[in-house]
């Protein structure tokens, strides 16, 4: 009886109590993505061993296996990607809210990435059966995104509080540009959504302008957002801020 109960998914979110502070993993606020850096990068997406990072045998994965049978999809690869995940709080919270989705956070700085890994390991230990569907990888998204993800494999992409790089000469280091949007569009599915969160008005205008101008993206109206999500959100009782940008077409790629 005790072992059966232990395998049940933990009902809580990532607010499981344990001693781990990001103060012990402090890092520089900025990292130059134009430098090469030292990253272990696969030569192609087929070489990425996702199974070694995700706990696909946990109780969390029951929903994944059900989806695989129902939708005939590959549930060994992440579909939700947090670009510049920082200390990983977003995906840690969403992991238990959406247990049938595999999600990965990508971060260029090593210290925050170490914190993310330690937290998920501790969460899996403290809440057996949960958090098997989330992991974090240190890499340079501006250079190596397509090394990890197949064409059209990502259905949600998050940009939460990206580095604003205020100085004009640093703008080329921003995580959203016309050139990078072409790569994001390549890995996004035709129905994918892009979520953008920032408290810097100038950066929000910068990102919105480039997403709007790019031929592979289109902006959703408020009515389209409500129509597309109200049934799903009301049934699951989860609420998230949705960016008004979605992929339009990948037919020319």
UniProtKB/TrEMBL annotation:
<feature type="binding site">
    <location>
        <begin position="107"/>
        <end position="108"/>
    </location>
    <ligand>
        <name>S-adenosyl-L-methionine</name>
    </ligand>
</feature>
<dbReference type="GO" id="GO:0008176">
    <property type="term" value="F:tRNA (guanine(46)-N7)-methyltransferase activity"/>
</dbReference>
<feature type="binding site">
    <location>
        <begin position="140"/>
        <end position="141"/>
    </location>
    <ligand>
        <name>S-adenosyl-L-methionine</name>
    </ligand>
</feature>
<keyword id="KW-0808">Transferase</keyword>
<dbReference type="InterPro" id="IPR003358">
    <property type="entry name" value="tRNA_(Gua-N-7)_MeTrfase_Trmb"/>
</dbReference>
<keyword id="KW-0820">tRNA-binding</keyword>
<comment type="pathway">
    <text>tRNA modification; N(7)-methylguanine-tRNA biosynthesis.</text>
</comment>
<comment type="similarity">
    <text>Belongs to the class I-like SAM-binding methyltransferase superfamily. TrmB family.</text>
</comment>
<dbReference type="GO" id="GO:0000049">
    <property type="term" value="F:tRNA binding"/>
</dbReference>
<feature type="active site">
    <location>
        <position position="163"/>
    </location>
</feature>
<dbReference type="GO" id="GO:0043527">
    <property type="term" value="C:tRNA methyltransferase complex"/>
</dbReference>
<protein>
    <recommendedName>
        <fullName>tRNA (guanine-N(7)-)-methyltransferase</fullName>
        <ecNumber>2.1.1.33</ecNumber>
    </recommendedName>
</protein>
<feature type="binding site">
    <location>
        <position position="160"/>
    </location>
    <ligand>
        <name>S-adenosyl-L-methionine</name>
    </ligand>
</feature>
<keyword id="KW-0489">Methyltransferase</keyword>
<dbReference type="GO" id="GO:0005634">
    <property type="term" value="C:nucleus"/>
</dbReference>
<dbReference type="Pfam" id="PF02390">
    <property type="entry name" value="Methyltransf_4"/>
</dbReference>
<keyword id="KW-0694">RNA-binding</keyword>
<dbReference type="InterPro" id="IPR025763">
    <property type="entry name" value="Trm8_euk"/>
</dbReference>
<comment type="function">
    <text>Catalyzes the formation of N(7)-methylguanine at position 46 (m7G46) in tRNA.</text>
</comment>
<keyword id="KW-0819">tRNA processing</keyword>
<keyword id="KW-0539">Nucleus</keyword>
<dbReference type="InterPro" id="IPR029063">
    <property type="entry name" value="SAM-dependent_MTases_sf"/>
</dbReference>
<keyword id="KW-0949">S-adenosyl-L-methionine</keyword>
<feature type="binding site">
    <location>
        <position position="84"/>
    </location>
    <ligand>
        <name>S-adenosyl-L-methionine</name>
    </ligand>
</feature>
